[in-house]
Amino acid sequence: MTRTMLTGNAAAAWGARLAEVDYVPAFPITPQTEILETLAGWSQLGEIPARVVMMDSEHSMLAAAATAAATGVRVFTATSSQGFLYGFEMLYAIAGLRLPLVLVNVSRALAHPITLEPDHNDVLSARDTGFLQFHAETSQEVLDSILMAYRFAEHEKVLLPAIVNLDGFYLSFTREAVEVPTPEETRNFLPAFRPAYPLLSNREPVAMGAAVLDPSLYSYFKHQMHNAAENVLTIYPKIADEFAATFGRRYGIIEEFMLDDADYVIVMTNSFASMGKAEIKRLRQKGKKIGLARLRMIRPFPHEELQRVLRERKGVAVVDQNISVGKGGILFSEIAGALYPLAGRPPVLLSFIGGLGGRRFRPGEFDGMLAKMENPTESAAETARPHLLFTGEECRQVGRFFTIAREEEPSRETGIL
Amino acid sequence: MIEVRFHGRGGQGAKIASRILGRSGFLSGLYAQDFALFGAERRGAPLASFTRLGREPIGERGYVETPGLAVVMDDSLLKEAPEQVFHGVFPHTPLFVNADPDQLAARTKHLPPANYIFIDLSAIARELIASAFISAAAAAVAARSIPAIEIAALDEAVRIEIAEFGLPADIIGKNQAAARRAYAQAPIVPVSPASTAMEILETAWQAVPYLGSAQFAGPTIRHRGSAVLRETGNWRTERPEIELGRCKRCFLCYLYCPEAAMTLDSENFPHVDYDHCKGCMICFEECPTDAISRRLEA
User: Distance from A270 to chain B by nearest Cα, in Å?
Assistant: First the structure.
């Protein structure tokens, strides 16, 4: 093990390197490109045996990833945002073919308006595909989650692909201390892939992805995928324990931060949870009994864990860094569904939208969310709807941009033809 | 936690500077984070990078809004990118500027108040590295005011980061020498911890009303020609120069210029708009008669 400074992207590349992946189909997109550049560099220098191949698009990249995984090799790839959507059709194909590869998504908000900074509408658009989803807060967690993701994906009771998500810029380009295990240590946790499924091979031809025009057959395969995803919930503790025994770090499905005696809980995901934790600490110093629950695994959805963590709390605020336009926060709806059957469900469950396009929290916003949980004054109809975090200063800033954008004919004496 | 912000131009080494400082903190046993913010920018464009150091896990990410200390690696940014350089800078904030110390009074007279320290990092780099590469010196002036960083850690951080950047051993040694010189020359200044600065910017949150604007429902700019107002000429590290005597008026430079910075006169001869040319040198590559030459900017 060595301890060094790594960006989220470098940690992702190290995760793939230590997983000793065989094949990496690639296509560049900001802010992900660094991952594939790093792997391509190592491949060229002969430091890793993996074959890194530049494809002509994300759709081809994911098609190549699927095909390679069908031959039984360990496959890694990475993309982001628009590229993720461009290859989207293949996500259902990979999952439906039950091919256990790992895809890193570096979250970046979707156009239009175009931006480079993160939110989670890209990765959450894949929530229904059959990919497992692990969302990381730190560079260390990116590396560790990739190793764990292969274990879950390749488990014979699962056989589903996995996404490891990290935020663009806030994590992808941010360096922090990371413990990088040795290949030997890693092999103890993640041995070479021994696929148990029928392989695509020219010696023993198979027809993969056959048509099932019988609705019951289609339902059967979809139900099987769902059951397979839920199997992750069963095997999770054992694999997390093995990971902890090997590397000394144990990851829960949900990270519980200052939750022991917390009456109020903020639910978050990904790297902005670092900022959330700092705010929780500050509110604790003011004597507030508040904590933070960070959802690390989003598929399969951890209903039972959420019920355990949020039972008997006085209030829960879900901060979604995404927006389902016309509905609200994606995770809020899912969490509400998990809590509804619970006898001791929190009487106050609020939805906040924050961090769209990388918008950072403003000082006072966590105090505001806590105040709303402590004194819920809104009607049931209002409470079911999301609160959009935005400040008066931002409104004024937008107004200034509009003033600039509005003028139809600037006066110009440029001398340019 | 201490937050440091570096301002430079793409290619000048602001990212490496933030990494050297981050690595110095890491090697000194601190929690360390460094981050460079650039996306669509390119060589020569103003950009910022950041280092956060603390004795506890760092609960902040992204842009440093209110730096405890800032280093401006290119003094032209004081005038060209004031909205970046002076963002969250208070009268007490130490602002190290890579410039001749003798010019301090004259050049800061009309600038926002800050605790200006002018130090000629470029002179150090020229003398000790024989290059314009000032990452090590920029990191060193910041490190000088952070007591937890030992000079040995700075020295080692320079070695690691310059090596990771792919430069040979003799250049690494020269960068270490530049860091030591800058460290010795820099004054020790008081650096505000991050939390005290935050409260000043506190704002209440509010709901976004529906504004009902059909004009601005989408991100549409009606203000035509606004790109002209953004001068990008000083992004250049080299400039194309046209020798009109060799020009056959084929228009290839005019067609290929990605910035529309090539103009045609009444006789259809091309001219470079140096206020906007970013120095990509595509015109130089495309010119079939070698009428365009490349010159280094001063």
Answer: 12
Report how many Cβ contacts below 8 Å link chain A to chain B: 128
**Does residue B239 share a domain with residue B177?**
no
The answer to the question of residue B202 being in a domain is: no
pLDDT at residue A416 greater than cutoff 70: no
Partner A contacted by B201 (CB < 8 A) = yes
Question: A408 CA to chain B: closest CA distance, Å?
Answer: 5
- The reply to whether B215 touches chain A by the CB within 8 Å rule is yes
Question: How far apart are alpha carbons B60 and B3 in whole angstroms?
Answer: 10
Task: Provide the domain count of chain B.
Answer: 2
d(CA B66, CA A38): 33
- Residue A392 pLDDT class (50, 70, 90 cuts): confident
Which residue type is seen at B240? P
- Quickly state the pLDDT bin for B214 (edges 50, 70, 90): confident
Q: Please check the confidence at residue B111 and state whether its pLDDT lies above 90.
A: yes
Residue A409, pLDDT above cutoff 50 = no
Residue B215 domain-assigned (yes or no) = no
Mean pLDDT of chain A: 94
Interface test with A, best of B24, B30, B205 (most A CBs within 10 A): B205
Domains along chain A with CATH numbers: 2-247 (3.40.50.970), 254-395 (3.40.50.920)
Residue-number span of the structural domain to which B134 is assigned: 2-196
Amino acid at A156: E
Using CA coordinates, name the residue in chain B closest to A352: B207
**Which chain A residues are within 8 Å of B263, Cβ to Cβ?**
416-417
Mean local confidence (pLDDT), B8-37: 95
Cα–Cα distances in angstroms (integers) from residue A299 to residues A152, A165, A233, A334, B21, in the given order: 11, 12, 10, 11, 39
Q: Hey, is the C-beta of B197 within 8 angstroms of any chain A C-beta?
A: no
Do B20 and B64 belong to one domain?
Answer: yes
- Average pLDDT, rounded, for chain B: 91
Whole-model pTM: value is 0.93
Q: What are phi and psi of A171, to 5 degrees?
A: -125, -40
Look at residue B25 and tell me if it is in a domain.
Answer: yes
| Closest by CA position to A181, among listed A192, A190, A169, A171 | A190
Q: What is the CATH number of the domain that holds B284?
A: 3.30.70.20
Q: Across-strand partners of B295?
A: B239
From chain B residues 61-90, the ones with a CB under 8 A of any chain A CB are: 61-63
Provide the 10 A C-beta neighbour count for residue A232.
24
Given a cut of 90, is residue B228 above it in pLDDT?
no
Q: Are residues B13 and B134 in the same domain?
A: yes
> Is B203 contained in some domain?
no
- Clarify whether residues B19 and B132 are in a common domain: yes
